[in-house]
């Protein structure tokens, strides 16, 4: 046996640990970024739902309007479906670049 062995790590063991750490980070970082992106898209969808509720029940409007919130532009369209039924649709581009449309119906 080695009489002067101090029980420390070898260079190869340290490099192996670093490679393992970097590999784990390289696999998990894109997944984490996707989760953050979808979370931000859910926040945009909640803002759109609030805009629909305001347009239907609090401040009724007819035609088209644009609402800018930070980097996102929401385009609202409202029209009468028949009788007192109204349809309000909101369009916006999410953080992934997809165009999203949500619609709501209500009576006035």
From TrEMBL:
Q: Which domain of life is it from?
A: Bacteria
Record keywords: Transmembrane included? yes
The regions listed as transmembrane in this protein's record are: 15-37
Q: Which UniProt keywords apply?
A: Membrane, Transmembrane, Transmembrane helix
**Protein name stated in the entry:** Competence protein ComG
